[in-house]
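TOKENISED FOLD:
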Amino acid sequence: MTFKINWMGATGILMALGIAAVTQVAAPRAVAATADAPGEQVQIRFQQFTLKNGLRVVLSEDHAAPTVSLCLTYDVGSRNEQSGHTGFAHLFEHMMFQGSQNVGKGEHLILVTVNGGDVNGTTSDDATNYFERVPANQLDLALFLESDRMRALRVTQANLDNQRNTVQEERRLRMDNQAYGKTDEVLEDLAYDNFAYKHSTMGSMTDLNVASLADVTQFFKTYYAPNNAVLTLVGDFKTPEALAKIKKYFEDIPSQPAPPPVDVSEPLQTAERTAVVEDSFARLPRLDVVYKTVPANTPDWYALDMLGDILFGGPSSRLYQKLVKEKAVALQVAGGIDVRRGPALFQAFALLKPGQDPKEIEKLIYEEFEHVKNDGVTRAEMDKVLIQDRLQHAESLRNTLNRARTLGRDAVYFHDPNLINTTLANYGEVTPADIQRVARQYLGDMQRTVVLTNPKTQAALPARPVPGGNQ
């Protein structure tokens, strides 16, 4: 069955939530409106400004609810780290809550929470972001807290030692002592040649142990500066008043020299790479196959993303039907392309049923890839994916915090927050021929990296005497 795309459906969802379906408002130093397209388009209105110290600001009014969502996205992730100094970006995700000049240790979290808000932070390969959602009358509080730690974070030996231990414990919980916890680290290390993406965001225990106060202080000074950040604000405010407040709290924070550029280029891979991981916490074999491809927000990336949805996107996808339903050799199948500013990984993942031969399942995956290369995909599959993309996009925009984070990410990654309005059109440009072409171009035998994670066989424990039995 061929599905028709209904723009009015997504528009109706957004208008019911108070999000205008109109063209983006132009503003001083603002991005131009999106390209013309037939019919009504869903648009998130926003304005952009740049403060004297280089801080970029994106403001998007939404008066549907009396709340505001603030996201501060710093242009620093694990890709900015150097060999021997890994884990610093993630370390600062924790350090940033340890107090600043006018805010006590842990007080940032307490102040936001007791005033009816929520707060958190995340770190990735490509950026770090801190965000809070608060009642509209607490905008000054959120701006003050973020500006105070940008201006004068307490980078002390005590805080470093405390948070170093916290990060190391997080690594133990999430990676070292969890089923399949080390698989992704092995996969990235094997697939990438460039150190920028080759090491994990979590960092190594050794590097964290030897990190000095001088090391982390310099890292903070270099990357947590106003000219290396984007502040996005979405919610119930008036733009002139909000901009005046932002200038009040942030504009006198000194800028810093621009950080060194990061080379994320990768040499051409000319041979298959393989590894086997023995995992004492795993109970079933896991198979991962990845291919280095292209950066996000490029034409080929959109085609690969749609290919991933066709192959892995839910119970009706090709490989779920083949491996889980038809052949019954896997319990779980997933995959697709990740979002990176440099070469992204296109990944196939399968959790195998007990007793299955990983080589046979690997063969079934490659057969489906070859099917796409030789026969392409159907228009019905394309339309299904486009409908799913539109629904997911519309649902993500219901939340002001999601909008703030998306605007911030796109401003930092691609210097284009207006992607929030144009992403769907980019998917709409992809043709079945594009998907067939990218499958042929990027999913080659010599371009893949394969990691098999096997449950580690445990040595049998000696029999224990039965109480009351013969000794």
Residues 1-39 have pLDDT under 50 and may be disordered. The first strand starts at residue 47 and ends at 50. Residues 58 and 292 are 32 Å apart (CA to CA).
